[in-house]
Amino acid sequence: MSLNHIILNSVPDDERLNISVCDVHCCNLFSENPVIFQDITQRIYEQLAPNVDVVQSDGEKSIIDTTGARGSILFRANTVQVGSKYKSYSHGTIQTNGANKSFTIRTKIGGAIIEAKQIILPNLNAGSAYTFNGELLIYEIGDAGVASVKSFFNFAFTDQQGVTENYFIDNPNNTTFQTTADADFDITVEWNNNTSNSLSCHSVTLEKIY
């Protein structure tokens, strides 16, 4: 049994960009009151312009620029639920001046660093496309020390031989993450080498499931 269309009235128009039903499953099909589970995806932020460039002299810099973006990166206090999942998608280009150059990419919610990963790159002096996609799964809600979130991210780029390289990031935070105060979602990049390296972010999307 499936539902192809669901009329959703619970989300205010001014807080949603796009809502789609990913999966609707019915169980207990032989009972009089089957249980329906809905995975509803809500696009809450879309950034298409301007491009955000990060070079070594910037230090740690956010690749999110809300100028002209649609939606919000704000996690409002006491609105996150246990089991909520947030999906982030970003892409752009990257260039290095030589091999073994590195940067640290961090995903944050407010002051809490959810994940931090050093990415070591080959010589990409001709430039390369990259993607940084992943999800955040809420295990517990509450104050810092009680709330818990886990990240699953993948940073991928194509080297100059056309081979795609991947960094997989899997990290929990149950010490500084909290859901009781407003906090912005953020992604930052910080180069670790004093040379002419650059990363340009072209798009960031944030979605919420449940």
Gross morphology is globular
Considering DSSP H and I runs of 4 or more, what fraction of the residues is helical? under 10%
- Rg estimate, integer Å: 19 Å
Straight-line distance between termini? 21 Å
Would you give the CATH topology? Jelly Rolls
Largest sheet: 9 strands, antiparallel
Domains, number: 1
User: Given this structure, which CATH class is correct?
Assistant: Mainly Beta
| SS summary, helix count | 0
The ordered H/E elements are EEEEEEEEEEEEEE
Q: What structural category characterises the helix and strand content? A: mainly beta
* Average pLDDT metric: 86
Give start-end ranges of low-pLDDT stretches: 1-16, 19-31
Instruction: Tally the beta strands.
Output: 14
Can you walk me through this structure?
The structure is a single chain. By secondary structure, the chain is mostly beta strands. It has a single domain, classed as Jelly Rolls, CATH 2.60.120. It is 0% helix and 56% strand. The chain has strands at residues 18-27, 35-47, 52-55, 61-62, 70-71, 74-75, 85-95, 101-109, 112-121, 128-140, 148-158, 164-173, 183-191, 198-209. A hairpin with a 7-residue loop joins strand 10 and strand 11. The radius of gyration is 19 Å and the shape is globular.
Present the secondary structure layout.
Elements: E1 18-27, E2 35-47, E3 52-55, E4 61-62, E5 70-71, E6 74-75, E7 85-95, E8 101-109, E9 112-121, E10 128-140, E11 148-158, E12 164-173, E13 183-191, E14 198-209
Antiparallel strand pairs: 1-2, 2-5, 2-14, 3-14, 4-13, 6-13, 7-10, 7-14, 8-9, 8-13, 10-11, 11-12
